[in-house]
Amino acid sequence: MRIPDRFHIAADHEHARDAAERLFAVVKQQLIAVLPKTSEFLHIGATSVPGCLTKGDLDIVVRVEREDFQVTEAALAARYARNSGSVRTNEFAAFEDSACMPHLGIQLTVKGGEFDVFHRFAAALRADPALVRRYNELKRAYDGQPMDRYRAAKDAFVTNALRGGSAERGNERAE
């Protein structure tokens, strides 16, 4: 899929969240039937966080044991297009379905691996309203801006949040 040129916040966040929840339930049931029993399916991303602004897509992380990664990756590749704009390693692969409404992104990670952070960021947002407010400020600042600039700012924000950075400006904790 071609990456959108610009980042845009969805006009109706509740509608976007409801649509994402419905699609998550459907996709989860489909994947449970074909992936290893130890697979964990989590709705991540802004649509999974109450009060968080969203562009309206659905992001899912599929977490698997290391020994199940290759078979899971093959099963996902048979059903979905690879996300060509994403890194691919022996612990991480990304897939998408732009025909879904909303757009569907699936991140496959090895539990405990280098890229097994998506669920941690979503949990941090759910636990900290101040972090959500700051994340929403970032999203508002980049609404209508080039997608690559938004993604760079978002990556820095996520990295800081996962390192334990405070949600309040000017109050960052040192490692």
Written overview of the protein:
It comes from Rhodopseudomonas palustris (strain ATCC BAA-98 / CGA009). This is GrpB family protein. InterPro entries: GrpB/CoaE (IPR007344), NT_sf (IPR043519). It is a single chain. By secondary structure, this protein is an alpha+beta fold. It has one domain (13-162): Beta Polymerase, domain 2. Helices cover 41% and strands 15% of the residues. The protein is built from 5 helices and 5 strands; from the N terminus they run H-E-E-H-E-E-E-H-H-H. It has helices at 13-32, 69-79, 118-127, 129-142, 147-162, and strands at 40-44, 58-64, 81-82, 92-97, 104-110. The chain has a 5-stranded mixed beta sheet, sandwiched between helices. Strand 4 and strand 5 (104-110) form a beta hairpin. Helix 4 packs antiparallel against helix 5 (147-162). 29% of the residues are buried. Mean pLDDT is 91; it is low at 167-175.
Summarize the structure.
It comes from Rhodopseudomonas palustris (strain ATCC BAA-98 / CGA009). By secondary structure, this protein is α+β, with helices and mostly antiparallel strands. It has 5 helices and 5 strands.
